[in-house]
Write a sequence for this structure.
Protein backbone atom coordinates (compact mmCIF):
# COMPACT_ATOMS: atom_id res chain seq x y z
CA UNK A 1 0.00 0.00 0.00
CA UNK A 2 1.39 3.34 -0.87
CA UNK A 3 0.90 6.14 1.57
CA UNK A 4 1.31 9.64 0.32
CA UNK A 5 2.01 8.75 -3.28
CA UNK A 6 -1.60 8.92 -4.36
CA UNK A 7 -2.64 11.98 -2.40
CA UNK A 8 -0.93 15.27 -1.83
CA UNK A 9 -0.42 16.63 1.65
CA UNK A 10 -3.22 19.19 1.51
CA UNK A 11 -5.69 16.65 0.14
CA UNK A 12 -4.69 14.33 2.93
CA UNK A 13 -5.43 17.03 5.48
CA UNK A 14 -8.92 17.58 4.08
CA UNK A 15 -9.49 13.82 4.11
CA UNK A 16 -8.38 13.73 7.73
CA UNK A 17 -10.78 16.50 8.74
CA UNK A 18 -13.62 14.73 6.94
CA UNK A 19 -12.77 11.53 8.80
CA UNK A 20 -12.97 13.31 12.15
CA UNK A 21 -16.30 14.89 11.21
CA UNK A 22 -17.73 11.49 10.26
CA UNK A 23 -16.47 9.87 13.46
CA UNK A 24 -17.92 12.73 15.51
CA UNK A 25 -21.25 12.33 13.72
CA UNK A 26 -21.23 8.58 14.35
CA UNK A 27 -20.28 8.71 18.01
CA UNK A 28 -21.64 11.95 19.51
CA UNK A 29 -25.27 10.72 19.68
CA UNK A 30 -24.25 7.41 21.26
CA UNK A 31 -22.04 9.09 23.85
CA UNK A 32 -24.73 11.68 24.67
CA UNK A 33 -27.36 8.97 25.13
CA UNK A 34 -25.12 7.02 27.49
CA UNK A 35 -24.33 10.19 29.46
CA UNK A 36 -28.03 11.08 29.77
CA UNK A 37 -28.84 7.63 31.12
CA UNK A 38 -26.82 8.45 34.25
CA UNK A 39 -28.72 11.67 34.88
CA UNK A 40 -30.55 11.60 38.20
CA UNK A 41 -33.28 14.05 37.21
CA UNK A 42 -36.55 12.62 35.95
CA UNK A 43 -36.67 15.44 33.43
CA UNK A 44 -34.33 14.25 30.72
CA UNK A 45 -33.17 17.71 29.65
CA UNK A 46 -32.18 19.03 33.08
CA UNK A 47 -28.87 17.69 34.25
CA UNK A 48 -28.62 17.36 38.02
CA UNK A 49 -26.12 14.75 39.14
CA UNK A 50 -24.86 11.38 37.97
CA UNK A 51 -26.60 8.33 39.43
CA UNK A 52 -27.64 4.76 38.71
CA UNK A 53 -31.23 5.57 39.64
CA UNK A 54 -32.72 4.64 36.27
CA UNK A 55 -30.78 1.41 36.06
CA UNK A 56 -32.31 0.43 39.39
CA UNK A 57 -35.74 1.38 38.07
CA UNK A 58 -35.10 -0.63 34.92
CA UNK A 59 -34.30 -3.84 36.77
CA UNK A 60 -37.44 -3.43 38.85
CA UNK A 61 -39.70 -2.76 35.89
CA UNK A 62 -41.63 -5.99 35.32
CA UNK A 63 -42.47 -5.11 31.70
CA UNK A 64 -38.87 -4.44 30.76
CA UNK A 65 -37.61 -7.58 32.48
CA UNK A 66 -40.33 -9.70 30.89
CA UNK A 67 -39.51 -8.31 27.44
CA UNK A 68 -35.80 -8.86 28.04
CA UNK A 69 -36.44 -12.48 28.98
CA UNK A 70 -38.53 -12.99 25.85
CA UNK A 71 -35.78 -11.44 23.72
CA UNK A 72 -33.17 -13.77 25.14
CA UNK A 73 -35.34 -16.87 24.69
CA UNK A 74 -36.13 -15.98 21.07
CA UNK A 75 -32.52 -15.05 20.27
CA UNK A 76 -31.21 -18.28 21.80
CA UNK A 77 -33.36 -20.62 19.71
CA UNK A 78 -33.26 -18.53 16.55
CA UNK A 79 -29.45 -18.34 16.66
CA UNK A 80 -28.95 -22.08 17.13
CA UNK A 81 -31.41 -23.19 14.46
CA UNK A 82 -30.41 -20.58 11.88
CA UNK A 83 -26.70 -21.26 12.40
CA UNK A 84 -27.12 -25.00 11.79
CA UNK A 85 -29.42 -24.61 8.78
CA UNK A 86 -27.46 -21.67 7.37
CA UNK A 87 -24.12 -23.49 7.62
CA UNK A 88 -25.56 -26.55 5.88
CA UNK A 89 -26.93 -24.28 3.17
CA UNK A 90 -23.54 -22.62 2.68
CA UNK A 91 -21.76 -25.98 2.40
CA UNK A 92 -24.31 -27.31 -0.08
CA UNK A 93 -24.13 -24.21 -2.28
CA UNK A 94 -20.35 -23.90 -2.17
CA UNK A 95 -19.23 -27.52 -2.39
CA UNK A 96 -21.92 -29.46 -4.23
CA UNK A 97 -23.69 -29.47 -7.51
CA UNK A 98 -27.22 -30.72 -7.34
CA UNK A 99 -30.59 -30.37 -8.97
CA UNK A 100 -32.34 -27.20 -7.83
CA UNK A 101 -29.10 -25.55 -6.76
CA UNK A 102 -29.63 -22.53 -9.00
CA UNK A 103 -33.13 -21.87 -7.65
CA UNK A 104 -31.92 -22.23 -4.07
CA UNK A 105 -29.01 -19.91 -4.75
CA UNK A 106 -31.50 -17.29 -5.91
CA UNK A 107 -33.93 -17.68 -3.00
CA UNK A 108 -31.15 -17.81 -0.42
CA UNK A 109 -30.17 -14.18 -0.84
CA UNK A 110 -33.65 -12.66 -1.18
CA UNK A 111 -34.35 -12.36 2.57
CA UNK A 112 -31.24 -10.15 2.82
CA UNK A 113 -32.28 -7.77 0.06
CA UNK A 114 -35.98 -7.58 0.80
CA UNK A 115 -36.91 -4.65 3.11
CA UNK A 116 -37.98 -5.67 6.59
CA UNK A 117 -41.41 -4.07 6.22
CA UNK A 118 -42.17 -6.42 3.33
CA UNK A 119 -40.81 -9.40 5.23
CA UNK A 120 -43.03 -8.42 8.16
CA UNK A 121 -46.12 -8.19 5.96
CA UNK A 122 -45.35 -11.55 4.37
CA UNK A 123 -45.01 -13.35 7.68
CA UNK A 124 -48.08 -11.65 9.20
CA UNK A 125 -50.27 -12.89 6.36
CA UNK A 126 -48.58 -16.30 6.38
CA UNK A 127 -49.21 -17.03 10.06
CA UNK A 128 -52.74 -15.64 9.86
CA UNK A 129 -53.51 -17.92 6.92
CA UNK A 130 -51.81 -21.02 8.35
CA UNK A 131 -53.48 -20.62 11.73
CA UNK A 132 -56.82 -20.15 10.01
CA UNK A 133 -56.38 -23.35 8.02
CA UNK A 134 -55.24 -25.28 11.10
CA UNK A 135 -58.28 -24.06 13.02
CA UNK A 136 -60.61 -25.17 10.22
CA UNK A 137 -58.99 -28.56 9.69
CA UNK A 138 -57.91 -29.74 13.13
CA UNK A 139 -59.65 -27.28 15.38
CA UNK A 140 -56.35 -26.24 16.98
CA UNK A 141 -56.26 -22.57 17.80
CA UNK A 142 -52.76 -21.16 17.61
CA UNK A 143 -51.80 -17.57 18.27
CA UNK A 144 -48.90 -15.31 17.54
CA UNK A 145 -46.33 -15.29 20.29
CA UNK A 146 -42.75 -16.25 21.03
CA UNK A 147 -43.07 -19.23 18.67
CA UNK A 148 -44.00 -17.16 15.65
CA UNK A 149 -41.32 -14.58 16.53
CA UNK A 150 -38.65 -17.28 16.70
CA UNK A 151 -39.75 -18.88 13.43
CA UNK A 152 -39.66 -15.48 11.72
CA UNK A 153 -36.22 -14.59 13.07
CA UNK A 154 -34.89 -17.90 11.78
CA UNK A 155 -36.40 -17.13 8.38
CA UNK A 156 -34.34 -13.97 7.90
CA UNK A 157 -31.22 -15.15 9.77
CA UNK A 158 -30.53 -18.30 7.71
CA UNK A 159 -29.48 -16.24 4.69
CA UNK A 160 -27.10 -14.03 6.67
CA UNK A 161 -25.42 -17.05 8.29
CA UNK A 162 -25.12 -18.73 4.90
CA UNK A 163 -23.45 -15.67 3.34
CA UNK A 164 -20.88 -15.36 6.13
CA UNK A 165 -20.03 -19.08 6.20
CA UNK A 166 -19.88 -19.23 2.42
CA UNK A 167 -17.42 -16.32 2.32
CA UNK A 168 -15.19 -18.34 4.62
CA UNK A 169 -15.63 -21.58 2.64
CA UNK A 170 -14.80 -19.94 -0.68
CA UNK A 171 -11.45 -18.82 0.70
CA UNK A 172 -10.40 -22.34 1.62
CA UNK A 173 -9.29 -24.53 -1.21
CA UNK A 174 -10.58 -28.04 -0.82
CA UNK A 175 -7.14 -29.64 -1.15
CA UNK A 176 -7.15 -30.30 2.60
CA UNK A 177 -10.46 -32.10 2.37
CA UNK A 178 -9.13 -34.05 -0.60
CA UNK A 179 -6.01 -34.94 1.37
CA UNK A 180 -8.21 -36.22 4.17
CA UNK A 181 -10.13 -38.33 1.66
CA UNK A 182 -6.85 -39.67 0.26
CA UNK A 183 -5.94 -40.71 3.78
CA UNK A 184 -9.08 -42.83 3.93
CA UNK A 185 -11.12 -40.48 6.09
CA UNK A 186 -14.82 -41.00 5.69
CA UNK A 187 -16.84 -38.03 4.50
CA UNK A 188 -18.12 -37.35 7.98
CA UNK A 189 -14.60 -37.60 9.46
CA UNK A 190 -13.19 -35.28 6.82
CA UNK A 191 -15.94 -32.79 7.57
CA UNK A 192 -15.62 -32.95 11.34
CA UNK A 193 -11.81 -33.03 11.53
CA UNK A 194 -10.87 -30.80 8.61
CA UNK A 195 -13.66 -28.66 7.17
CA UNK A 196 -15.47 -27.76 10.39
CA UNK A 197 -12.39 -26.49 12.28
CA UNK A 198 -11.42 -24.43 9.23
CA UNK A 199 -14.82 -22.80 8.81
CA UNK A 200 -15.44 -22.50 12.57
CA UNK A 201 -14.63 -18.75 12.66
CA UNK A 202 -17.10 -18.19 9.83
CA UNK A 203 -19.77 -20.24 11.61
CA UNK A 204 -19.17 -18.32 14.84
CA UNK A 205 -19.31 -15.04 12.93
CA UNK A 206 -22.58 -16.10 11.32
CA UNK A 207 -24.00 -17.12 14.69
CA UNK A 208 -23.08 -13.72 16.16
CA UNK A 209 -24.73 -11.97 13.24
CA UNK A 210 -27.88 -14.06 13.71
CA UNK A 211 -27.85 -13.26 17.42
CA UNK A 212 -27.47 -9.53 16.74
CA UNK A 213 -30.22 -9.54 14.12
CA UNK A 214 -32.59 -11.33 16.47
CA UNK A 215 -31.83 -9.03 19.41
CA UNK A 216 -32.23 -5.91 17.23
CA UNK A 217 -35.27 -6.68 15.14
CA UNK A 218 -38.26 -4.40 15.58
CA UNK A 219 -40.35 -4.42 12.43
CA UNK A 220 -40.83 -8.13 11.76
CA UNK A 221 -41.26 -8.91 15.46
CA UNK A 222 -43.90 -6.22 15.87
CA UNK A 223 -45.97 -7.85 13.14
CA UNK A 224 -45.76 -11.44 14.39
CA UNK A 225 -45.84 -10.91 18.14
CA UNK A 226 -48.95 -11.50 20.17
CA UNK A 227 -50.46 -9.71 23.13
CA UNK A 228 -48.16 -9.80 26.14
CA UNK A 229 -45.39 -11.58 24.26
CA UNK A 230 -43.12 -8.90 22.87
CA UNK A 231 -39.37 -8.60 22.75
CA UNK A 232 -37.33 -5.80 24.31
CA UNK A 233 -36.82 -3.75 21.11
CA UNK A 234 -40.56 -3.86 20.32
CA UNK A 235 -41.44 -2.84 23.87
CA UNK A 236 -38.90 0.00 23.77
CA UNK A 237 -40.16 1.05 20.34
CA UNK A 238 -43.65 1.41 21.79
CA UNK A 239 -42.31 3.57 24.62
CA UNK A 240 -40.10 5.66 22.33
CA UNK A 241 -43.01 6.67 20.14
CA UNK A 242 -44.65 8.23 23.18
CA UNK A 243 -41.63 10.26 24.17
CA UNK A 244 -38.23 10.45 25.79
CA UNK A 245 -37.86 9.18 29.36
CA UNK A 246 -34.79 8.49 31.49
CA UNK A 247 -35.89 4.87 31.77
CA UNK A 248 -35.65 4.42 27.98
CA UNK A 249 -32.20 6.01 28.11
CA UNK A 250 -31.08 3.37 30.60
CA UNK A 251 -32.59 0.46 28.62
CA UNK A 252 -31.04 1.87 25.42
CA UNK A 253 -27.63 2.03 27.03
CA UNK A 254 -28.01 -1.58 28.13
CA UNK A 255 -28.82 -2.56 24.53
CA UNK A 256 -25.86 -0.56 23.22
CA UNK A 257 -23.49 -2.23 25.64
CA UNK A 258 -24.82 -5.64 24.59
CA UNK A 259 -24.14 -4.77 20.93
CA UNK A 260 -20.64 -3.60 21.74
CA UNK A 261 -19.83 -6.78 23.64
CA UNK A 262 -20.94 -8.74 20.59
CA UNK A 263 -18.70 -6.61 18.32
CA UNK A 264 -15.81 -7.25 20.67
CA UNK A 265 -16.37 -11.00 20.55
CA UNK A 266 -16.66 -11.01 16.77
CA UNK A 267 -13.49 -8.97 16.33
CA UNK A 268 -11.66 -11.28 18.71
CA UNK A 269 -12.85 -14.27 16.70
CA UNK A 270 -11.64 -12.75 13.45
CA UNK A 271 -8.25 -12.02 14.89
CA UNK A 272 -7.95 -15.62 16.11
CA UNK A 273 -9.05 -16.86 12.71
CA UNK A 274 -6.46 -14.74 10.94
CA UNK A 275 -3.54 -16.23 12.82
CA UNK A 276 -4.77 -19.78 12.50
CA UNK A 277 -5.60 -20.04 8.84
CA UNK A 278 -3.02 -17.55 7.54
CA UNK A 279 -5.40 -15.92 5.15
CA UNK A 280 -4.23 -12.93 3.11
CA UNK A 281 -5.82 -10.28 5.25
CA UNK A 282 -8.18 -10.82 8.10
CA UNK A 283 -9.64 -7.33 7.82
CA UNK A 284 -10.60 -8.33 4.31
CA UNK A 285 -12.53 -11.33 5.57
CA UNK A 286 -14.26 -9.21 8.15
CA UNK A 287 -15.36 -6.83 5.44
CA UNK A 288 -16.57 -9.48 3.09
CA UNK A 289 -18.74 -10.68 5.88
CA UNK A 290 -19.92 -7.25 6.89
CA UNK A 291 -20.41 -5.81 3.44
CA UNK A 292 -22.90 -8.40 2.31
CA UNK A 293 -25.56 -7.40 4.72
CA UNK B 1 -17.25 -21.98 -8.60
CA UNK B 2 -15.33 -24.83 -7.05
CA UNK B 3 -14.79 -28.19 -8.63
CA UNK B 4 -16.94 -30.97 -7.20
CA UNK B 5 -15.04 -33.05 -4.61
CA UNK B 6 -13.06 -36.02 -5.88
CA UNK B 7 -15.41 -38.26 -7.76
CA UNK B 8 -13.90 -41.73 -7.55
CA UNK B 9 -13.54 -43.61 -4.29
CA UNK B 10 -9.91 -43.73 -3.11
CA UNK B 11 -10.08 -47.51 -2.69
CA UNK B 12 -10.64 -48.14 -6.39
CA UNK B 13 -7.64 -47.20 -8.47
CA UNK B 14 -9.39 -48.77 -11.49
CA UNK B 15 -9.75 -46.51 -14.55
CA UNK B 16 -12.59 -44.05 -14.26
CA UNK B 17 -15.25 -45.20 -16.66
CA UNK B 18 -18.02 -42.87 -17.83
CA UNK B 19 -20.53 -45.00 -15.93
CA UNK B 20 -18.55 -44.68 -12.72
CA UNK B 21 -18.25 -40.97 -13.19
CA UNK B 22 -21.94 -40.65 -13.87
CA UNK B 23 -22.79 -42.59 -10.72
CA UNK B 24 -20.43 -40.44 -8.68
CA UNK B 25 -22.01 -37.24 -9.98
CA UNK B 26 -25.43 -38.64 -9.16
CA UNK B 27 -24.34 -39.50 -5.63
CA UNK B 28 -22.86 -36.03 -5.29
CA UNK B 29 -26.10 -34.46 -6.42
CA UNK B 30 -28.10 -36.50 -3.94
CA UNK B 31 -25.78 -35.57 -1.10
CA UNK B 32 -25.90 -31.86 -1.95
CA UNK B 33 -29.66 -31.88 -2.08
CA UNK B 34 -29.81 -33.69 1.26
CA UNK B 35 -27.54 -31.17 2.97
CA UNK B 36 -29.48 -28.23 1.59
CA UNK B 37 -32.87 -29.79 2.33
CA UNK B 38 -33.54 -28.13 5.72
CA UNK B 39 -32.79 -24.69 4.27
CA UNK B 40 -34.79 -25.51 1.16
CA UNK B 41 -37.86 -26.50 3.14
CA UNK B 42 -37.55 -23.60 5.56
CA UNK B 43 -37.06 -20.93 2.92
CA UNK B 44 -39.85 -22.23 0.73
CA UNK B 45 -42.26 -22.47 3.66
CA UNK B 46 -41.41 -19.22 5.44
CA UNK B 47 -40.26 -17.08 2.55
CA UNK B 48 -41.54 -18.18 -0.85
CA UNK B 49 -45.02 -19.18 0.31
CA UNK B 50 -45.50 -15.92 2.30
CA UNK B 51 -44.31 -13.92 -0.72
CA UNK B 52 -46.85 -15.67 -2.93
CA UNK B 53 -49.53 -15.09 -0.28
CA UNK B 54 -48.89 -11.33 -0.31
CA UNK B 55 -49.27 -11.42 -4.07
CA UNK B 56 -52.54 -13.33 -3.78
CA UNK B 57 -53.84 -10.97 -1.06
CA UNK B 58 -53.18 -7.94 -3.26
CA UNK B 59 -56.04 -9.10 -5.51
CA UNK B 60 -58.45 -9.94 -2.68
CA UNK B 61 -61.45 -7.95 -1.38
CA UNK B 62 -62.59 -6.88 2.07
CA UNK B 63 -65.96 -7.67 3.58
CA UNK B 64 -68.17 -5.13 5.35
CA UNK B 65 -66.20 -5.52 8.61
CA UNK B 66 -62.91 -4.80 6.87
CA UNK B 67 -61.74 -8.40 7.01
CA UNK B 68 -59.94 -9.70 3.93
CA UNK B 69 -61.84 -12.36 2.01
CA UNK B 70 -60.10 -14.45 -0.62
CA UNK B 71 -62.74 -14.16 -3.31
CA UNK B 72 -64.02 -11.64 -5.88
CA UNK B 73 -60.51 -11.17 -7.19
CA UNK B 74 -59.98 -7.65 -8.49
CA UNK B 75 -57.47 -4.95 -9.33
CA UNK B 76 -58.90 -2.30 -6.98
CA UNK B 77 -55.82 -2.23 -4.77
CA UNK B 78 -53.57 -1.66 -7.74
CA UNK B 79 -55.87 1.07 -9.08
CA UNK B 80 -55.57 2.82 -5.74
CA UNK B 81 -51.81 2.96 -6.22
CA UNK B 82 -52.40 5.61 -8.85
CA UNK B 83 -54.03 8.12 -6.54
CA UNK B 84 -52.58 11.44 -5.53
CA UNK B 85 -51.79 10.55 -1.92
CA UNK B 86 -49.87 7.44 -2.93
CA UNK B 87 -47.94 9.42 -5.55
CA UNK B 88 -47.08 12.01 -2.96
CA UNK B 89 -45.81 9.45 -0.46
CA UNK B 90 -43.92 7.57 -3.17
CA UNK B 91 -42.29 10.75 -4.43
CA UNK B 92 -41.35 11.89 -0.94
CA UNK B 93 -39.84 8.49 -0.10
CA UNK B 94 -37.95 8.31 -3.38
CA UNK B 95 -36.49 11.80 -2.99
CA UNK B 96 -35.53 11.13 0.60
CA UNK B 97 -33.91 7.79 -0.27
CA UNK B 98 -31.94 9.34 -3.13
CA UNK B 99 -30.82 12.33 -1.02
CA UNK B 100 -29.82 9.96 1.80
CA UNK B 101 -27.79 7.84 -0.63
CA UNK B 102 -26.04 10.89 -2.13
CA UNK B 103 -25.17 12.41 1.26
CA UNK B 104 -23.87 9.06 2.52
CA UNK B 105 -21.77 8.67 -0.63
CA UNK B 106 -20.32 12.20 -0.43
CA UNK B 107 -19.11 11.71 3.14
CA UNK B 108 -18.27 8.02 2.97
CA UNK B 109 -16.10 8.06 -0.12
CA UNK B 110 -13.39 10.40 1.23
CA UNK B 111 -13.81 8.72 4.61
CA UNK B 112 -13.23 5.22 3.20
CA UNK B 113 -10.39 6.56 1.06
CA UNK B 114 -8.75 8.03 4.12
CA UNK B 115 -8.98 4.73 6.03
CA UNK B 116 -7.75 2.69 3.07
CA UNK B 117 -4.62 4.83 2.67
CA UNK B 118 -3.47 4.54 6.32
CA UNK B 119 -0.87 2.08 7.55
CA UNK B 120 -2.31 -1.41 8.22
CA UNK B 121 -2.29 -0.91 11.98
CA UNK B 122 -4.14 2.43 11.93
CA UNK B 123 -6.44 1.07 9.26
CA UNK B 124 -7.57 -1.86 11.39
CA UNK B 125 -8.13 0.39 14.38
CA UNK B 126 -10.24 2.87 12.40
CA UNK B 127 -12.17 -0.01 10.93
CA UNK B 128 -13.12 -1.24 14.39
CA UNK B 129 -14.53 2.21 15.10
CA UNK B 130 -16.68 1.93 11.97
CA UNK B 131 -17.84 -1.56 12.92
CA UNK B 132 -19.12 -0.56 16.36
CA UNK B 133 -21.96 1.68 15.16
CA UNK B 134 -22.56 -0.75 12.28
CA UNK B 135 -23.35 -3.53 14.76
CA UNK B 136 -25.08 -1.35 17.33
CA UNK B 137 -28.81 -1.48 17.77
CA UNK B 138 -30.52 0.52 15.03
CA UNK B 139 -33.54 1.46 17.15
CA UNK B 140 -31.33 2.82 19.92
CA UNK B 141 -29.17 4.80 17.49
CA UNK B 142 -32.29 6.38 16.00
CA UNK B 143 -33.71 7.07 19.44
CA UNK B 144 -30.53 8.98 20.33
CA UNK B 145 -31.48 11.55 17.70
CA UNK B 146 -34.92 11.93 19.22
CA UNK B 147 -33.18 12.95 22.44
CA UNK B 148 -30.84 15.32 20.60
CA UNK B 149 -33.38 16.96 18.28
CA UNK B 150 -36.23 17.30 20.80
CA UNK B 151 -37.47 20.76 21.76
CA UNK B 152 -35.65 20.39 25.10
CA UNK B 153 -32.67 18.60 23.63
CA UNK B 154 -29.05 19.77 23.49
CA UNK B 155 -29.33 21.51 20.11
CA UNK B 156 -32.27 23.64 21.24
CA UNK B 157 -30.60 24.40 24.56
CA UNK B 158 -27.41 25.55 22.90
CA UNK B 159 -29.46 27.79 20.63
CA UNK B 160 -31.34 29.20 23.62
CA UNK B 161 -28.14 29.74 25.57
CA UNK B 162 -26.79 31.73 22.65
CA UNK B 163 -29.87 33.92 22.80
CA UNK B 164 -31.60 32.33 19.82
CA UNK B 165 -34.93 30.65 19.31
CA UNK B 166 -35.49 27.04 20.36
CA UNK B 167 -34.87 24.92 17.28
CA UNK B 168 -37.55 22.37 16.56
CA UNK B 169 -36.22 19.82 14.14
CA UNK B 170 -38.02 16.82 15.52
CA UNK B 171 -40.98 15.52 13.49
CA UNK B 172 -39.75 17.22 10.31
CA UNK B 173 -38.40 15.76 7.08
CA UNK B 174 -34.96 17.07 8.04
CA UNK B 175 -35.03 14.98 11.21
CA UNK B 176 -35.95 11.87 9.20
CA UNK B 177 -33.14 12.62 6.75
CA UNK B 178 -30.61 12.99 9.56
CA UNK B 179 -31.83 9.72 11.06
CA UNK B 180 -31.59 7.86 7.75
CA UNK B 181 -28.08 9.14 6.99
CA UNK B 182 -27.00 8.30 10.52
CA UNK B 183 -28.55 4.85 10.39
CA UNK B 184 -27.21 3.77 7.03
CA UNK B 185 -23.86 5.55 6.74
CA UNK B 186 -21.85 2.49 7.86
CA UNK B 187 -23.55 0.46 5.11
CA UNK B 188 -21.93 2.80 2.60
CA UNK B 189 -18.52 3.01 4.23
CA UNK B 190 -17.80 -0.71 4.45
CA UNK B 191 -18.24 -1.73 0.79
CA UNK B 192 -16.41 1.42 -0.34
CA UNK B 193 -13.53 0.61 1.95
CA UNK B 194 -13.49 -3.00 0.75
CA UNK B 195 -13.24 -1.83 -2.88
CA UNK B 196 -10.55 0.78 -2.21
CA UNK B 197 -8.50 -1.48 0.00
CA UNK B 198 -8.44 -4.24 -2.59
CA UNK B 199 -7.43 -1.85 -5.37
CA UNK B 200 -4.03 -2.16 -7.01
CA UNK B 201 -2.48 1.21 -6.09
CA UNK B 202 0.38 0.64 -8.52
CA UNK B 203 -2.09 1.61 -11.25
CA UNK B 204 -2.47 5.05 -9.65
CA UNK B 205 1.31 5.33 -9.44
CA UNK B 206 1.56 4.41 -13.11
CA UNK B 207 -0.93 7.18 -13.95
CA UNK B 208 1.15 9.66 -11.96
CA UNK B 209 4.32 8.46 -13.71
CA UNK B 210 2.59 9.25 -16.97
CA UNK B 211 2.14 12.85 -15.76
CA UNK B 212 -1.53 12.64 -14.83
CA UNK B 213 -2.26 15.14 -12.05
CA UNK B 214 -3.87 14.01 -8.80
CA UNK B 215 -7.41 14.79 -9.89
CA UNK B 216 -7.06 13.14 -13.30
CA UNK B 217 -5.55 9.97 -11.88
CA UNK B 218 -8.36 9.84 -9.34
CA UNK B 219 -11.04 10.37 -11.96
CA UNK B 220 -9.56 8.01 -14.55
CA UNK B 221 -8.13 5.28 -12.31
CA UNK B 222 -9.23 5.26 -8.67
CA UNK B 223 -12.91 6.10 -9.17
CA UNK B 224 -13.59 3.53 -11.92
CA UNK B 225 -11.73 0.84 -9.96
CA UNK B 226 -13.76 1.55 -6.83
CA UNK B 227 -17.08 1.58 -8.73
CA UNK B 228 -18.19 -1.86 -7.46
CA UNK B 229 -17.98 -0.41 -3.94
CA UNK B 230 -19.99 2.65 -4.95
CA UNK B 231 -22.69 0.49 -6.52
CA UNK B 232 -22.85 -1.95 -3.59
CA UNK B 233 -22.90 0.86 -1.02
CA UNK B 234 -25.57 2.81 -2.89
CA UNK B 235 -27.85 -0.23 -3.08
CA UNK B 236 -27.28 -1.05 0.58
CA UNK B 237 -28.30 2.49 1.57
CA UNK B 238 -31.03 3.15 -1.00
CA UNK B 239 -33.10 0.01 -0.45
CA UNK B 240 -33.50 0.20 3.32
CA UNK B 241 -34.01 3.97 3.10
CA UNK B 242 -36.88 3.53 0.68
CA UNK B 243 -38.58 0.99 2.92
CA UNK B 244 -37.64 2.69 6.19
CA UNK B 245 -40.20 2.41 8.94
CA UNK B 246 -38.45 2.77 12.30
CA UNK B 247 -36.74 6.08 11.45
CA UNK B 248 -39.83 7.98 10.25
CA UNK B 249 -41.90 6.45 13.07
CA UNK B 250 -39.53 7.87 15.69
CA UNK B 251 -38.27 11.08 14.10
CA UNK B 252 -40.96 11.98 11.57
CA UNK B 253 -44.33 13.63 12.01
CA UNK B 254 -47.81 13.24 10.59
CA UNK B 255 -46.87 15.19 7.48
CA UNK B 256 -43.78 13.13 6.70
CA UNK B 257 -45.42 9.76 6.06
CA UNK B 258 -43.08 7.53 4.07
CA UNK B 259 -43.73 4.27 2.23
CA UNK B 260 -42.59 2.17 5.18
CA UNK B 261 -45.02 3.67 7.69
CA UNK B 262 -47.76 3.87 5.06
CA UNK B 263 -47.52 0.11 4.48
CA UNK B 264 -47.43 -0.62 8.18
CA UNK B 265 -50.48 1.56 8.81
CA UNK B 266 -52.44 -0.41 6.19
CA UNK B 267 -51.88 -3.56 8.23
CA UNK B 268 -51.89 -2.42 11.83
CA UNK B 269 -54.28 0.55 11.72
CA UNK B 270 -56.44 0.70 8.58
CA UNK B 271 -56.59 -3.10 8.31
CA UNK B 272 -56.65 -2.88 4.54
CA UNK B 273 -54.52 -5.92 3.81
CA UNK B 274 -55.13 -6.09 0.04
CA UNK B 275 -54.03 -2.49 -0.47
CA UNK B 276 -51.06 -2.94 1.87
CA UNK B 277 -50.04 -6.03 -0.12
CA UNK B 278 -50.28 -4.15 -3.42
CA UNK B 279 -48.17 -1.35 -1.93
CA UNK B 280 -45.53 -3.86 -0.79
CA UNK B 281 -45.29 -5.22 -4.29
CA UNK B 282 -45.04 -1.75 -5.79
CA UNK B 283 -42.17 -0.94 -3.42
CA UNK B 284 -40.36 -4.16 -4.31
CA UNK B 285 -40.82 -3.38 -7.98
CA UNK B 286 -39.26 0.08 -7.58
CA UNK B 287 -36.38 -1.43 -5.61
CA UNK B 288 -35.75 -3.98 -8.32
CA UNK B 289 -35.69 -1.23 -10.95
CA UNK B 290 -33.35 0.87 -8.84
CA UNK B 291 -30.98 -2.05 -8.33
CA UNK B 292 -30.84 -2.71 -12.07
CA UNK B 293 -30.29 1.01 -12.68
CA UNK B 294 -27.41 1.14 -10.19
CA UNK B 295 -25.72 -1.89 -11.72
CA UNK B 296 -26.11 -0.46 -15.22
CA UNK B 297 -24.76 2.92 -14.16
CA UNK B 298 -21.90 1.22 -12.36
CA UNK B 299 -21.04 -0.91 -15.37
CA UNK B 300 -21.09 2.06 -17.75
CA UNK B 301 -18.33 3.93 -15.93
CA UNK B 302 -16.01 0.94 -16.07
Amino acid sequence: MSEGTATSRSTDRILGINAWVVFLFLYAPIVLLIAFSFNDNSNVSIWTEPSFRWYGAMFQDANVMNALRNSLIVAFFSTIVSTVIGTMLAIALERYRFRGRGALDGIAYLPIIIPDVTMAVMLLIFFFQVFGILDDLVGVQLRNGLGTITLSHIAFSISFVAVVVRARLSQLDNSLEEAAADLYASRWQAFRKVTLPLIAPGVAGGALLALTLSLDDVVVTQFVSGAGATTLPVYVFGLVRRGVTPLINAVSTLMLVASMVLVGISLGLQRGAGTRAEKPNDADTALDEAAVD
Amino acid sequence: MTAPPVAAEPETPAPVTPELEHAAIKAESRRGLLISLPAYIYLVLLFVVPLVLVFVYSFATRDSTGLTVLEDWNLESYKRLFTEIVFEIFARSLVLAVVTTVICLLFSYPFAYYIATRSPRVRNLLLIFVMIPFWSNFLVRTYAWRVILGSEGPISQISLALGGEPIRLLFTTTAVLIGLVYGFLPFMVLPLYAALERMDWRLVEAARDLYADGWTSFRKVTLPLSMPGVVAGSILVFIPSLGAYVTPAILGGAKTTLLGDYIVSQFLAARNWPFGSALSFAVMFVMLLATIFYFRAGAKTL
